[in-house]
Amino acid sequence: MSEVDHPWARPMPEQQFELMKRILDAPSPVGLEGAMTYGVLKPHFESFAPDGWHTHQFKGHAGIVLDSHPGRDDLFKVMLIGHADKIRMQVRSIGEDGKIWINTDSFLPTVLIGHEVKLFSEDPEAPGQYRIIQGGTVEALGAIHFSDPAVRTGDKGIKKEQIYLDLQIHGENKKQQVLNLGVRPGDTILLDRPIRPGFSPNTFYGAYLDNGLGCFVTAEVARLIAEAGGTQNVRLLFAIASYEEIGRFGSRVLAGELKPDALIGVDVNHDYVAAPGIGDRRMQPLEMGKGFTLSVGAIASEQLNRLFESTAKEHGIPMQRDIVGADTGTDGMAGVLAAVDCAATSIGFPIRNMHTISETGNTQDLLAAIHGLTRTLQALDALPDPHREFRDNHPRLDRAATLAHQGAGKPDESKAEEKRSGKAE
Questions:
Q1: How many CB atoms lie within 10 A of CB 211?
Q2: Do domains 3-86+208-392 and 89-191 have the same CATH topology?
Q3: Contact, 95 vs 162, CB < 8 A?
Q4: pLDDT at 305
Q5: H-helix or E-strand spanning residue 152
Q6: Is residue 114 a contact partner of residue 273, using CB atoms and an 8 Å limit?
Q7: What is the mean pLDDT of each successive set of 10 residues along the chain, which is 425 residues long?
Q8: So what's the pLDDT on residue 124?
Q9: CA-CA distance, 375 to 393, in Å (whole number)?
């Protein structure tokens, strides 16, 4: 297969792009992930899962896990985790003038101003049933005419306490009009922006790439593995977690319940090359369009990473190394947080404008991640004994080979000879 024939070197097929859009569009804020897990992903799993595969469901949250070998605890278990929950705004209180004051959660207040949103309100008269209110916008200052000079010049910003939802309420008893709608403190508000193809080739943008993209990649790996005949020696657990955005509280439950031997977090990453104003931080040059990313550092297993790197190199799949310091920042930490002994790492895909309404990604990075994960899982399955492989082959730096000193402090012999013969300046 030539390089241009590789799936990650071609545009994403339309049907696959549409699946990605449906997953990203599902209204699944923190604690209310069922729209994505049960509304989109569980039916998708059932459409391709071979006989004998099983979907685990849970009592305390809407996470799901597609299991290739249910009950086979003797097999080496590998868990892939994407998280379905989206950051959201919430109703805080209702003012006498009809303003709905809201929390901004993990959004910068300034990125919210003027954007259309959807408010999901539980019916007070029928708990468990939800209504949707559209047509409102997020505001803070009203017109520029009412802001102080420092805000006009940009010397002063907007505080999160200034953010409110405007439903254009007018007339008498404005607060009561809002209350009559059944709006209550705690109601969820989501940005209203569908996914669209971008201007540049293979790009797309919209809200909530974080982390519907991880769920999409996890689901597509499951489909490819199933279509290839499954695995023989490895039990695969394709997990869609909850509560990541408030502390990764869902994935640790999944890891604690199913106790994987290896765990791979699948989440968005940053395009540091395009990020404005961070040049002096000397970040690693991760870049959209250059392939998936692999975490190095924190609790990332060097053995598991070695398998990813060698597999990517063998198949020509573009990959970028990401240094993560003390914490991967993803569900890749789920095993250690649940006190489960497992090799772990985290893979991702660089995006721009994270936690805004215009998050931007590249489909070829996603395809590289999908096929990189698929090939790596198949390489794991081909190992004679994955359990012993990971127990017996921890890196030993005391066995590191000594490199012959080259370069600095040692003259280049060819240059020295040229100088002696008068050929060099």
A1: 29
A2: no
A3: no
A4: 98
A5: helix 149-153
A6: no
A7: 79 98 98 98 98 98 98 98 97 97 95 97 91 97 89 91 97 96 96 97 98 98 98 98 96 98 98 94 95 98 98 98 96 98 98 97 98 98 97 96 74 52 47
A8: 87
A9: 21
CB 355 within 8 A of CB 108: yes
Token pair of 18, please?
């549409």
Instruction: Quickly list DSSP for 126-138.
Output: STT-EEEEEEEEE
3-state secondary structure of 87: coil
* Main-chain dihedrals φ then ψ at residue 137, nearest 5 degrees: -130, 155
Q: Retrieve residue 169's tokens.
A: 């309420």
Asked if 115 and 102 count as a contact pair (C-beta separation under 8 A), the reply is no
By the 8 A CB rule, do 341 and 315 touch? no
Collect all residues with Cβ–Cβ distance below 8 Å to 292 and sequence separation of at least 6. Answer: 317, 318, 319, 320, 347, 348, 349, 365, 366, 368, 369, 372
Which pLDDT belongs to residue 425? Answer: 42
320: its two tokens:
């970028």
CA distance readout (Å), 349 to 88, 175, 196, 217, 255: 22, 44, 18, 10, 23
Say what the pLDDT of residue 5 is.
81
Non-local (6+) Cβ contacts of 236 within 8 A are 67, 68, 69, 77, 78, 80, 222, 225, 377
- Tokens read off for 281: 């931080």
CB 158 within 8 A of CB 112: no
Q: What is the bridge-based pairing of β-strands 54-57 and 64-67?
A: antiparallel
pTM of the model: 0.93
The dihedral sign for the CA sequence 201, 12, 239, 375: negative
Domain chopping of the chain, boundaries: 3-86+208-392, 89-191
Looking at domain 3-86+208-392, its CATH superfamily turns out to be Zn peptidases (3.40.630.10)
The secondary structure of 154-203 as a DSSP string is: TSS---GGG-EEE----SS-HHHHHHHTT--TT-EEEE----EE-SSTTE
Domain 89-191 class in CATH: mainly beta
Distance from C-alpha of 303 to C-alpha of 312, rounded to nearest angstrom:
14
φ, ψ for residue 65, nearest 5 deg: -140, 120
